[in-house]
Specification:
alpha+beta; 3-stranded antiparallel β-sheet; about 35% helix
Length: about 120
């Protein structure tokens, strides 16, 4: 279960639901895009990101998020970085559901690599 970022050449990267949720929230909270551009992509319902948007997303992830992480680290929904491993449990209590989402350093690097080579608009589906 997850999302694919796909460019017009059909090159893609897969991001699981839990990593995408954290990535999406960190970008949203930073105000990288207007809500009408970024908001619908939480559920993969929005229009493709333009080449300009792709560059903006790549630059944000590369300069603002990646430097705060190291291999094995995770970015939480709050934007906080932790080296504590995911406990692998599903947290159902509303007050603990945030624990289900985190963006790993490794997935972040894969997304950035994809955005570096992406051609044209990128769809999230």
């Amino acid at each position: 279960m997850g999302y694919f970022l796909i460019d017009e050449t059909k090159d893609s990267v897969s991001v699981n639901f839990w990593n995408w949720g954290a990535l999406h929230e960190v970008v949203r909270a930073a105000g990288v895009f207007p809500d009408e551009v970024w908001g619908p992509l939480r559920g993969s319902f929005g229009p493709p990101l333009s080449a300009e948007h792709v560059a903006r997303l790549r630059d944000f992830l590369k300069t603002q998020v990646l430097p705060r992480t190291t291999p094995g680290a995770r970015v939480l929904l709050t934007g906080e970085v932790t080296n504590e491993p995911d406990d692998g449990k599903m947290h159902y209590e509303e007050s603990e559901q945030w624990k289900n989402y985190s963006l790993t350093h490794e997935v972040l690097c894969e997304v950035i690599k994809f955005l570096d080579r992406a051609e044209g608009p990128v769809r999230v589906q």
